[in-house]
Amino acid sequence: MSYAVKEIFLTLQGEGVHAGRRAVFLRFSGCNLWTGREEDRASAICQFCDTDFVGMDGENGGRYDAEALAAKVAALWGDGTENRYVVITGGEPMLQVDDAIVDALHAQAFQIAIESNGTIEVHPGIDWVCISPKAGSDVIHRRGDELKLVWPQPASNIDAMEQWQFAHFLIQPMDAGDLGVNAANVAEATRFVMERPKWRLSLQNHKILGLP
């Protein structure tokens, strides 16, 4: 298997339960809800994506086999194997994730997290599953550690989502600005949490801090 990788970089996790945690981000190319081309955005299922996942021209981007990819992730982490954490993301990473890359990253002592739209069943070897559903898509993976709903998505069935099997339910204001903060969306998400205490507010702290 040759994996198409957009970029790999060391940073802090900016969102969700693990916000502030040191992490290597492994971003795979490609998505099944949008081509990534601006001319296709209006007709895409996911129209608000703020991520460049097209091609393999980002930092450390390219094609890798499983062992080489895991070795690159380990090299970016640096010395020591304690508390190693890698976030596999995209695009939609489950278009490429398989046994080989999961086994290779585990062999390098990484805890593996994934951020997925949930339209493809997540690999059972993933240690931390974050699903970010997109209104209009068919979410089949309805269990895991985090459900992260970008808001507003008016067509979302919140009552149905609250029956899904997740440990944490997060609402995240949609990005709309250089710092990743939009006052109206933050206010709306805050009101949402006040009305639905099962949920917690998640902000894109990496954008506020100027991190990748």
TrEMBL record:
Required cofactor(s): [4Fe-4S] cluster; S-adenosyl-L-methionine; Mg(2+)
HAMAP family linked: QueE (MF_00917)
Role played: Catalyzes the complex heterocyclic radical-mediated conversion of 6-carboxy-5,6,7,8-tetrahydropterin (CPH4) to 7-carboxy-7-deazaguanine (CDG), a step common to the biosynthetic pathways of all 7-deazapurine-containing compounds.
EC number: 4.3.99.3
Family (UniProt): Belongs to the radical SAM superfamily. 7-carboxy-7-deazaguanine synthase family.
Residue stretches spanning the membrane: none
Alphabetical UniProt keywords: 4Fe-4S, Iron, Iron-sulfur, Lyase, Magnesium, Metal-binding, Queuosine biosynthesis, S-adenosyl-L-methionine
Domain Radical SAM core, first and last residues per copy: 18-212
Pathway: Purine metabolism; 7-cyano-7-deazaguanine biosynthesis
Residues involved in substrate binding: L12, Q13, G14, R27, T89, P212
Record-given protein name: 7-carboxy-7-deazaguanine synthase
Domain of life assignment: Bacteria
A Gene Ontology BP annotation from the UniProt entry: tRNA queuosine(34) biosynthetic process
Subunit structure: Homodimer.
MF terms (GO), sorted A to Z: 4 iron, 4 sulfur cluster binding; carbon-nitrogen lyase activity; magnesium ion binding; S-adenosyl-L-methionine binding
Catalysed reaction equations from the record: 6-carboxy-5,6,7,8-tetrahydropterin + H(+) = 7-carboxy-7-carbaguanine + NH4(+)
Cofactor binding notes: Binds 1 [4Fe-4S] cluster. The cluster is coordinated with 3 cysteines and an exchangeable S-adenosyl-L-methionine. Binds 1 S-adenosyl-L-methionine per subunit.
InterPro entries for this protein: 7-CO-7-deazaguanine_synth-like, Aldolase_TIM, QueE_Cx14CxxC, rSAM, rSAM_sf
Residues that, per the record, bind [4Fe-4S] cluster: C31, C46, C49
SUPFAM superfamilies in the record: Radical SAM enzymes
Positions with a binding annotation for S-adenosyl-L-methionine: F48, C49, D50, G91, S132, P133, K134, Q172, P173, M174, D175
PROSITE patterns recorded: RADICAL_SAM (PS51918)
Organism of derivation: Sphingorhabdus wooponensis
